[in-house]
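pinging the channel bc i need a second pair of eyes. not urgent but kinda urgent?? the chain im working w is below, pasted from the shared doc
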Amino acid sequence: MDQTSNQRAKYFISKPIDQFFIGVYDISKFVVQFFREVFAPPYEYQEVVKQCYHVGYKSLSLITLTAFITGIVFTDHSRPALADFGATSWLPSLTGIAIVKALAPLITSLICAGKVGSQIGAELGSMKVTEQIDAMEVSAINPFKFLVVTRVLATTFMVPLLTLYSAFIGLTGSFLDVHGKDQTSLTAFIHDAFFKIGYAEILSTLIRSIMFGFTIGIVGCYKGFTTSQGTEGVGRAANSSVVIIMFLVFIEEMVVVKFFNPLYMQ
């Protein structure tokens, strides 16, 4: 009995570890295949543009509302703390740094993870279980290039643009709040908001948003492209896409911030 129990314990311990490393290997192969296919002709320009439109259009309204509210709420929450030190004049600078460096990339990526990442996972998953991807292969169409490469490129291109738009809307909400309470002019607000923002901050924001966009596309496509077990698998693909993307986004955020913090200090 003891030997049997030990064997079962080893099995339950080793199986998740084996599955983890098998999953890492499969994802690595998927990413390598993407970089191999993205530079090889033919190039699906029209499909990339179509997917860029879908990524931007499906996320724009929610990003607009969320970024605007975030700008107002962050400004309102920051005002009392600065007022205790008599430093409310630093409010535009504080909101500018917070929105451009941190809030805009995170808000945009998390919204796109929920709207775009889940949709990609569900869309490709349904095509997989209904054998539409197999039909494309029979029709001499490269399904990986047409379905995966185009969507990953679309998210990688559009998330940085949506991040800049989110930062603009967030600062607009912050300005309206500051102007309503302090009568600060637009010129003074813009000057103070961007006074502490240099090339390192902008570069950090762009790098993070590109990484987030690539993560959203590649994870959503991988989970959808490898879906199994019918409609139940489609639901799991959509759900796991969002969870994994959000987890990786926060990991990438931590890594990039740790890398760029020394540059801010210089």
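so The chain has one domain: 44-265. and The chain is about 90% helix and 0% strand. — does that match what u expected or am i reading it wrong
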